[in-house]
Amino acid sequence: MNYKIIAMDMDGTLLNDDKSISKYNEEMIHKAMRSGVKVVISSGRLPVTLGFYIDTVFKNQPVICCNGSIVLDENKNIIKSNLLDKEAILKVIDILREKKDTYYHFYSDNILYSERVSHATRKFYKFNENMDKDFRLEIKIIKDSKEFIQNNGSCINKIVVIDKDIDYLNELREKINKVSKIDTTKSDIHNIEIISKGVSKGSGLKFLADYYHIPLNECIAVGNDENDESMIKEAGLGIAVANAREFLKKSADYVTEKDNNNGAIGEIIKKFI
């Protein structure tokens, strides 16, 4: 098969555990680009937090962001954006407040909003310390999310819930899934990611394939976690990296011999492109 698109997850798939791209993977990515293949980042991250990678390794390539909520073309123009329903967001926040003050944050216009500094907010403050100002994520701590959303409207692409108690997260997810107009997924065992109904990396890949008039059977998708499953099933060739969660490997057409720290993406490009 002459594949035209390879869409790859970042964290746990392309990136090493230290969040870098190995020289081998970078060389193979550029080799694929030179052959005319569109090499697409497909991430749960916001565009701004992918900016460094977009401007260095993935120049002039389309990008799937925020689990498919935002899609950029090769010129970094937003060609698709799905926002969460305002009333659905308010219902979700009520659920998160039922039992305890559950940590969550949400993304709007390349800004992270949270009611307190904890979990991911600390991680992103650290991320900002190591980044040029053009690639830093703006973080705003607000007093009350419901009041903020009611007063400022809703331009929210994704909500992320984080807790160490997996049973509690499972309980929350069951309740949140009953709210209309939303879907949930996970990129880590300790989180829940909330997006608009029908939005996924799979829907993002399908949109891109249609946008560039490329059949889905000429697309490869690669990932390691639950939020990658939709695109792995959607693509003509769905691939799980060696370090992927076991259920994802069962959904994949191919499982790499190498993991994210040892050139899994390079292995795929060498074998299939």
UniProtKB/TrEMBL annotation:
One Gene Ontology molecular-function label: magnesium ion binding
Enzyme Commission number(s): 3.1.3.-
Domain of life according to the entry: Bacteria
SUPFAM superfamilies documented for this protein: HAD-like
GO cellular component: cytosol
Keywords: Hydrolase
EC class name: hydrolase
Keyword ATP-binding in record: no
NCBIfam families, A to Z: Cof-subfamily, HAD-SF-IIB
Protein known as: Phosphatase YwpJ
Designated gene of the protein: ywpJ
